[in-house]
Amino acid sequence: MKIKRTCYDSFYPFKILSKNSFETIVFEPVTILYGGNGSGKSTALHVIAEKTGVKRDSIYNKSNFYPDYVNMCGMQLKEEIPENSRIITSDDVFDYMLNIRNLNEGIDQKREELFEEYLDAKYSHFQMRCMEDYEQLKKVNIARSQTQSRFVRNELMDNVREYSNGESAFLYFTEKIGENGLYILDEPENSLSPKRQVELVDFIEQSARFFGCQFIISTHSPFLLSMNGAKIYNLDEKPVKVRRWTELENIRTYYDFFKRHENKF
Prior knowledge:
Blueprint: E1 30-34, H1 41-52, H2 66-72, E2 86-88, H3 90-122, H4 134-145, H5 148-155, H6 165-176, E3 182-186, H7 194-210, E4 214-218, H8 222-225, E5 231-234, E6 241-243, H9 249-260
Parallel strand pairs: 1-4, 1-5, 2-3, 3-4
Antiparallel strand pairs: 5-6
């Protein structure tokens, strides 16, 4: 390997994908990598992201041999990869949700301070004695002429709308995915309710069909796996094969479960 060192704790990502003879991917507008934990679907996504040079927000932990592995991979393009292309991981979505939560917590604290400020201004016996008191006089007059909610809203004009975690996660995808881009999504169903997953499926299908986008996705979600026209590689098979979504073990487990309880619906 031409790397001089006494020992290594891992030769990752070598032998992760090759153990199931996963050697070639031919991409469609929507390509899905399916498999259980340890199947290598996330590894494949990150290798593709490195090889294509798409943007990423979160840092990916690479091994000593990672650059060698990426350099040994071949890639054929029909056209140049658009600049707005990116990989979106669960870490990206969680960081985004955490930032919104922290921002809203700061706004909540500011709101409580404004409630107190409103009450102090409205019921104070303030008298103006000099020009330096003019700003306080304005605040007293405003407080006496407005309701508490109106006063607080006006003071928080840059208030961030508070979303649930699922709403925030879905918003992240719609903000980051634009027109004519290559988007690599690592288990995007994380933090999304079934209803939001269905909405994401519709968004991806519309983006691929009408807005020139291409998607490479790793997922367990039956909603994402059922996408129209998606090409699914089953990384649990040896050798890896392209399968219909209804043939996958995860989907068959769901099917058998609901079939057993069909009379309860």
